[in-house]
Amino acid sequence: MARPNKLLIGGSVSRGFEPVRDAFLENFTRRNELGGACCIYHDGEKVVDLWGGMRDRHSGEPWCEDTMVLVHSTTKGMAAMVMALAHSRGWLDYDERISTYWPEFAQNGKERITVRQLLAHQAGLFAFDEPVDRDVVADLDRLAGIMARQRPAWEPGERQAYHAISLGFYQGELIRRVDPAHRTLGRVFEDEIARPLGVDFYIRVPETVPNSRLARLEAPRLWKRFFGMPPSVVLASITKSSVLYRSLIANPGTGFYMDPDRVVVRNLEAPSGGGVGTARAIARAYGVFASGGRELGIRTETIEALCAPATPSRHGFYDECFHGAVKFSLGFMKPSESVPFGHPSAFGSPGAGGSMGYADPEERIGYGYVTNRMDVHFEGDPRDLALREAMATVLQAARRERQHADGRAS
User: Which one, of 281, 282, 304, 283, lies nearest residue 292 by Cα?
Assistant: First the structure.
């Protein structure tokens, strides 16, 4: 089947952001893109909104303006927005013990774990000892019991290990406990973020979303999985006792929220990886946070907390899952040498396969990129990086022009 050409690219860019459009086109001609979308909000205004390629390689159906796709861990950023909303409304304090809101949680050495430690992947709750499958995830009371009984792998704050799937379930139960209406995290996201902003992003995909709106993910080839990641990570992925295997691959792993016939399982919440949406939705939501959060009633104190530097565990930012240094704070990833994006105050979340979303308050940028051809790059997907580099070029040029204008005015 022929590669997508310019006729299959839709959308628009504001004047000055043409380099982002060029990079988007080059993703198809030079970087093996299949289908995807990119959106950027700057100062609250949409300046880039692009989509193109194929929604489904086998059928050849095009990626349309309203096409959505599963974004795996990019979902974590959207779930973290719900936690920020809860903090801003006084439902929870990041530095309070989880057991204050969820008394049953105080079992088996978890009584001192704080919300902040959990959201920084420092709670040692990256895996489940009891079986967790689709039926358990669908029964929130049963899932809550398993989480309450879980024993942490270490003392709170001792080490960091990516809670690849489990984090969202703990977040979800916390939200059920603190929300005055006892809604689920996905429902709060829909009611308080998605609907007010008019964005297409679901943490619980309803039956009403047809397959025709969903792009089908294409997994990376086996050789890429083995040669595209550091050897230590590859070895951990096939070692059943490793943190990575227990966190990301087993019990329940990522497959439980995918469905071969319906693309994604409907009416099931997986706040750490099961989100489905558009790049436009991701960029719009992050754009609101990057501009101060006023449209959602987010308090200045909450935005300042999100912008603040990450707090390391007692063993630093070395992540036992990734075998390298990564920074997390309040449910978001923060920029680091291993995963650079935006300025130090930025916060967001990349997703397996290449998707990315983040807010950069210093630049007042909300950014979103999604794709259906998954690739394997720990430090950033080349397609995403090309788009962000083009955006950086545009913003640098705008700064120089402003400085030049100020110099002439003075």
Answer: 304
**Tokens 């989509």 sit on residue:** 51
In this structure, what token pair is assigned to residue 307?
A: 């912008």
Radius of gyration of the chain from Cα atoms?
20
Q: Are strands 201-202 and 35-42 parallel, antiparallel or unpaired?
A: unpaired
Task: Encode burial over 200-232: b for 16+ CB neighbours within 10 A, e otherwise.
Answer: bbbbbbeeebeeebbbbbbebeeeeeeeebeee
Neighbours of 145 (CB within 10 A): 14
Q: Angle 151-154-155 (CA atoms, 0-180°, nearest 5)? A: 100
252: preceding bond cis by omega (within 30 degrees): yes
Q: Tell me how crowded residue 403 is: count the other CB atoms within 10 A of its CB.
A: 10
Per-residue pLDDT of the chain (410 residues; tens, 9 = 90+): 444 444 489 999 999 999 999 999 999 999 999 999 999 999 999 999 999 999 999 999 999 999 999 999 999 999 999 999 999 999 999 999 999 999 999 999 999 999 999 999 999 999 999 999 999 999 999 999 999 999 999 999 999 999 999 999 999 999 999 999 999 999 999 999 999 999 999 999 999 999 999 999 998 776 556 556 678 888 888 899 999 999 999 999 999 999 988 999 999 999 999 999 999 999 999 999 999 999 999 999 999 999 999 999 999 999 999 999 999 999 999 999 999 999 999 999 999 999 999 999 999 999 999 999 999 877 789 999 999 999 999 999 888 887 767 666 66
By DSSP bridging, strand 263-264 and strand 45-53 are: unpaired
Secondary structure of residue 94 in the 3-state scheme: coil
The encoded tokens of residue 293 equal: 């959060």
Cα→Cα distances 355→35, 195, 295, Å = 12, 22, 25
For 330, the token pair is: 């309040």
Helix locations, 190-264, DSSP H = 195-197, 222-227, 231-237, 243-244
Taking the C-alpha atoms of residue 355 and residue 70, their distance in angstroms, rounded to an integer, is 9
Quick one: which of 158, 84, 144, 91 has its CA closest to 331?
Answer: 84
Can you spell out the DSSP letters for 215-236? PPPBPPPHHHHHHSS-HHHHHH
- Which residues face 358 on adjacent strands? 348, 367
